[in-house]
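so my prof wants the structure for this chain in the tokens format not the other one, which i didnt know existed until like an hour ago. anyway here's the sequence
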Amino acid sequence: MNFRQFAFNNVFRNKRTYAAYFLSSAFSVMIFFIYSVIAFHPEMQEGMVVNLASQAMKIAQWIVYVFSFFFILYSVSAFLKTRQHEFGVLMMQGMSHRQMNRLVFLENMIIGIASIVVGIVVGLVMAKVGLMVGGNMMDVQLSYYIAPKALTLTGGSFFILFIVISFLTQFMIGKSKVIQLLQGTNKPKPEPKASLLLSLLSAILLGGGYFLAATANAGTIGILMLPVIVMTIIGSYFLFTQLSVFIINLMKKNRNLFWRRTNLITISDLAYRMKDNARMFFMVCIVSTVAFCAVGSLASFGVLGKQTELSYPFQVSYLSKGDNKKANEHLNSIEVGLKNANAKYDKVTTLVLYQTSKQSESGISLLSASEYNKLAAVLHIDPVQLKGNDAMVLPHNFEYKKVLGTGKRDITLKESGIKLHSIGVAEGPVISQGMGSNWAVISDEAAEIIQGSSKKGIVTGYHLDNWEDAKGVGQNINEELKSWYEAHAEDREASSSFDFNSLADSLAMQNQMYSIMMFSALLVGAVFFIASGSFLYFRLYTDLEQDKERYKAIGKIGLKDKELSKIATTQLLLLFFIPIIVAIIHSVFAFMALQSLMDLSIAGQAFKVLGGFTVAQIVYFMAIRWRYMKHLREALH
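here's what i got, hopefully its the right format
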């Protein structure tokens, strides 16, 4: 048997321990490969939206790559610690440190190359599903095609990653003495102790971070985000390393609790497990929180579709200004399109007056009270009654409502010199988003006075019961408008004589952008979540031999199989769910902060994401518990 065969046999002999590491690495390779297949697909290279999707895939794949580097590096270091006894035996047989480094290098490269091959092979099969699902989510038709660049990039990138990590392993082994290696993880452990000061610091940091997140608003969230993240990360670290041990030590002092049935064994062992696994719990907690927040935040943006819908009271709108000679042609085209789509609609034409605010030097779009009431009647909202120089500020989209405040302010019109006195905010919007900004409603008397000094526009709105019927209507007008803007891109003063928008087309574009980001986040979130599960698996199975000996010793003092099973299950539950529960609490407060940016509730979307991840963790726990208990029972009987 040569040295390479010896390295291969070592990997195969420890296949149970290496299983999660290998599968997680292969999964990362597969996801990276699927991202590459989509990013380099020929049909993803043209058009603004698909080009954005291609860029999103490339960003996501490198996020997976960087995360995979740290994940694999941590996994290797964890395995090396558990194999110290084995290394001590090999050194007693005459192996040098140089040979040991070479052995670990070869073992890691064997696993790495196997992960790359399996990840790409499975990726070739799953790419068809990825292209189909990703294409449907992004509203892009993607045929099955594997770009050679996707194969070479995936294989080359991960081969370099495993070489670098395999090289770094020699620094992890160090030059420990044989006696230290032989002791390995069996060295006597001191009684777990916690610092009261650091425990209090953890509680203060987490409590303060939660308070700031819960009380954040649209104006402060940008300022508070970084401090809250830093406070939560530091607080989480001390929660697992100090506060948890401090709480367990308090539980030990409660005799009624500590001496009850099997709690003596469970709580005593829990203190050591919390201390030993503190860093792993911290990593699982942070990684899971990132996964929950990334997917949950994007899922929450789904409510933006509803907000956009509320910003388009007229689902199809056309604005004609100045000397627009194509108005009748464009309106006729819209109505023919609506007729062909069998769309039922109410048509309203509105006169808009344009002036400039003397205070801000920005343009103002003005509606007379009668014009506003004509729109209000179609939209079933309350009319307004204005006299003299009274005016009301009008929100130009749904999100702008909360920015307006009371709307009570004075506005002096530059062209006409009239000073308007705003008495509040009118119910709106009544003109669809994109047809202007800085809207106000004025009395009919004021409108009559300023007409002569105002530029004029006519907005034609089509109110539909089923706005989906309007998809594609006015596409020729959109293309014409796009060509005009491209031709006048360098002229900042240029203003088109017409404008057009459609809720169906705007939402289709928005949903496509949202789906691109959601698809990217789901796969990245899956990698993060599976990695966090792998951390738990590593810790569990690296301690399995010690657990067998411990439970065998406990069984000898007369505990029944049912009681042993209860103790093991309780400890497994804590091991799997303590970091996940903390991550869920972190995420809930993150979503509370995010809610301050939304006008509609995101609770439903957040609950679905957190619920989905929790169900996945429960399924994973049940599978691992079954295997773990099977190994324990084999050792006890």
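also thought this was worth mentioning. The two ends are 36 Å apart (CA to CA).
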